[in-house]
Amino acid sequence: MRKIIEKEFALNYLNKYGSQMTVGNGYLGVRGALEEEYPEQVRGMYVAGIYNRPSGSMSSELVNLPDVTRFQVTLDGEVFSMQAGKVHTYERFLDMDTGELVRKITWESSAGKKYQLNFHRFVSKEVKHVIAAKVEITPLSDNMKVKVKTGIDAQQTNFGTQQLAESSLRIFDEELMVGEYETIESKQRITVATKVNEKGIFTAKNRQLMTEVEQEIAVNQVFTLEKLSVVKTSLDEADAEFPKASYAELKAASETVWADFWEHAGVRVKSTNTFDQFALDFACYHLEIMTPKEDSRCSVGAKGLTGEGYKGHVFWDTEIFIMPFFLYNQPEIAKQLLQYRYLHLKEAKEKAVKNGYNGALYPWESAFSGEEETPEFAAINIRTGTRQKVASAISEHHLVADIAYAVCEYEAATGDAQFMADCGAELLLETAEFWISRATNRNGRLEILDVIGPDEYTEHIDNNTYTNYMAHYNVKKALEWNKDNKAFAAQAEKFLENLYLPVENEAGLIPQDDTFLQKDWINLDKYKAAQGTQGILLDYSRQEVNELQILKQADLVMLFYLFPKMFAPEIVKKNLDYYEKRTIHDSSLSKAIHAIVENQAGNRAQAYQFFQEACLIDLGSEPHSSDDGLHAASLGAIWLAVVFGFAGIDTSGELLEIAPNLPDAWQAVAFEFAWKGETISVEIAPNTLQLSKSTKSVLELVIYGEKQQLTDTLTINLEQKDVSL
Amino acid sequence: MRKIIEKEFALNYLNKYGSQMTVGNGYLGVRGALEEEYPEQVRGMYVAGIYNRPSGSMSSELVNLPDVTRFQVTLDGEVFSMQAGKVHTYERFLDMDTGELVRKITWESSAGKKYQLNFHRFVSKEVKHVIAAKVEITPLSDNMKVKVKTGIDAQQTNFGTQQLAESSLRIFDEELMVGEYETIESKQRITVATKVNEKGIFTAKNRQLMTEVEQEIAVNQVFTLEKLSVVKTSLDEADAEFPKASYAELKAASETVWADFWEHAGVRVKSTNTFDQFALDFACYHLEIMTPKEDSRCSVGAKGLTGEGYKGHVFWDTEIFIMPFFLYNQPEIAKQLLQYRYLHLKEAKEKAVKNGYNGALYPWESAFSGEEETPEFAAINIRTGTRQKVASAISEHHLVADIAYAVCEYEAATGDAQFMADCGAELLLETAEFWISRATNRNGRLEILDVIGPDEYTEHIDNNTYTNYMAHYNVKKALEWNKDNKAFAAQAEKFLENLYLPVENEAGLIPQDDTFLQKDWINLDKYKAAQGTQGILLDYSRQEVNELQILKQADLVMLFYLFPKMFAPEIVKKNLDYYEKRTIHDSSLSKAIHAIVENQAGNRAQAYQFFQEACLIDLGSEPHSSDDGLHAASLGAIWLAVVFGFAGIDTSGELLEIAPNLPDAWQAVAFEFAWKGETISVEIAPNTLQLSKSTKSVLELVIYGEKQQLTDTLTINLEQKDVSL
Question: Locate the Glycoside hydrolase family 65 C-terminal domain: which residues (chains A, B) (predicted)?
Answer without folding.
Answer: 651-710
